[in-house]
Design a protein that fits this description.
alpha+beta, five-stranded mixed sheet, 9 helices, 54% helix, elongated
Amino acid sequence: MSSDPKLKDNLRAAILAEPDAVLDDKDLMQALVAANEQARGANVVDLRGIAMQRLEARLDRLEDTHRSVIAAAYENLAGTNQVHRAILRLLEPTVFEDFLRALGNDVAEILRVDHITLVLETTVVRDDPVVNQLGGVLTVTEPGFIDKYLTSDRNSQPREVTLREIHHPNPQVYGEQANQLRSEACLKLDLGIGRLPGMIVMGAHDPRHFSPQLGTDLLAFFAGVFERSMRHWLS
């Protein structure tokens, strides 16, 4: 094969100077292997080459899995930090009205949701000016409303955390923002012996923001801290 001797010497010198660079270059090694197979002819089967190809494919899959695991770990860490910041913000107020305003404003912003409503059941449902002044963060309903809302009136046991897409948001829960929300996280609250249950509802514009496939551990932790705070305020 005729070639430029000077070019050949330059290539040879470069390879001898940095042989590891050749071995680490995946495309270059594949080209060399392909050239070697072409030189042997089609009648020769290189079992070692086939094994290497399979190992490379497995390595690529492992690398993809590794990247996915790292991305999930970072996402989980970010979510944990968000929940911790939200909880710390809830612990700051010394007045109940400020506590609820923090839930509807600062906590919603920290958790990156578009709306938060605290639903409380009561045997006396009436128009309360204090509720109206809280900007829709608190709504009171008749007994049994929360379980019906969580199960969509089906005869089933409500879960502590429910994530789902919503097609017809309930105005009683979301108020004026109902038509803008497309997914929600519902956190059922145990407010103590002798008290009716409560519920935190987080709404999002994105229908995939609260997908049923997402983990619920952090939301369950947030609900646990919140319901203990509520027991303190109610006492």
